[in-house]
Amino acid sequence: MPGRAWWTHTTMVELGGGLTVHVLDAPPDGEPTGDPLVLLHGFGANLLAWRHVVGPLRAAGRRVVAFDRPGWGRSPLPPPSSPIRPYAFDSEAATTVALLDALGIDRAVLIGSSAGGSVAVEVAHDAPDLVAALVLVDAAVLGPHGPPSAARLVGRLPGVASAAPRFMARTAVRAVPRILRNVWHDAGAITAEAVEAATAAFGADGWAEALWAFSTSFLAPDGRAHAAAITTPTLVITGDHDRIVPTAKSLELAALIPGSELVVIPGCGHLPMEEHPQRFLAAVVPFVGRTTAAASGLGPSRKSTGSVAAVTDGSR
Question: 131-175 pLDDT, tens per residue?
Fold first, then answer.
């Protein structure tokens, strides 16, 4: 799997109350050039969603942090005695802030994919001094979004909470190839390695119980008000064939955020960092370089004017 050398930088971080998260904390290659980059994956994913871009982002002089959001990957289910239930939307933002505090990070660029984008916006709202810039990737901000209300109601019925995880354990892994065909624009480009990485979302002890808890708890409110209040530099990225968060939603999001930049990646679905990593990097690396230079005094301030670009150069 590409970039597996950075697995040497993964560890488990305890956040208190029985909550532990699986974290990649990789230093920059060479001298640091700016704020750390914190990568937030989406629903049903894990930190391997960023596997193609971690190396190049480190090569650009950035400390790169990614973690399995609670309920996914190797981040285990808290014990029954824990008072923390990290699967509610407001808890997701609090978990992110707590992790950055534990890692000694007081300022970072948040890069959020899909539901991870909605968490990034919430962190920017709750802790604006923590956020140097935002990169929202096919972000599920305009909602509300989450599991259907019927699923949350059914989850409260007697016996369902114990039976549903067993059902998920039997079906979730088998469903990964079908899900990826819906998520990617070009289904023919999906490799066995991509399936393996996606399947790693279901890796922690108690993952089926965690997935069920997440599926019946996570409901993100409509993020329009918080998006419109963002003052930090923001880049919105979308594939032009996103069937999960329709491209029009990302265009609307970019229009809501004052001074944001928008990049539309052609021939791409919901996960640009996986389907077209070079085009993703061609958008992200210059953006974070400009925002760091402006914030640190390393170069002239370059105020965004709501520009729109299509990234077409480079290969997958």
Answer: 999 999 999 999 766 555 555 555 556 666 667 666 766 777 888
Read off the tokens for 285.
């690396």
Give which of 14, 25, 249, 290 is closest to 145, Cα–Cα.
Answer: 249
- Copy the structure tokens of residue 133: 């810039």
Cα-atom radius of gyration of the chain, to the nearest Å? 18
Q: What is the pLDDT of residues 239-298, one digit of tens each?
A: 999 999 999 999 999 999 999 999 999 999 999 999 999 999 999 999 999 986 555 444
Cα 139 from Cα 146, distance rounded (Å): 13
| Neighbouring residues of 145: CB distance < 8 A, sequence distance ≥ 6 | 115, 118, 219, 220
Question: What predicted TM-score, i.e. pTM, was given to this entire model?
Answer: 0.86
- Strand 10-16's sheet: what is its strand order? 10-16, 19-26, 64-67, 37-40, 108-113, 131-137, 234-239, 261-265, 308-310
Instruction: Indicate the Cα dihedral angle 145, 150, 154, 156, nearest 10°.
Output: 60
CATH topology of domain 4-310: Rossmann fold (3.40.50)
Q: How far apart are CA 208 and CA 184, in angstroms?
A: 24
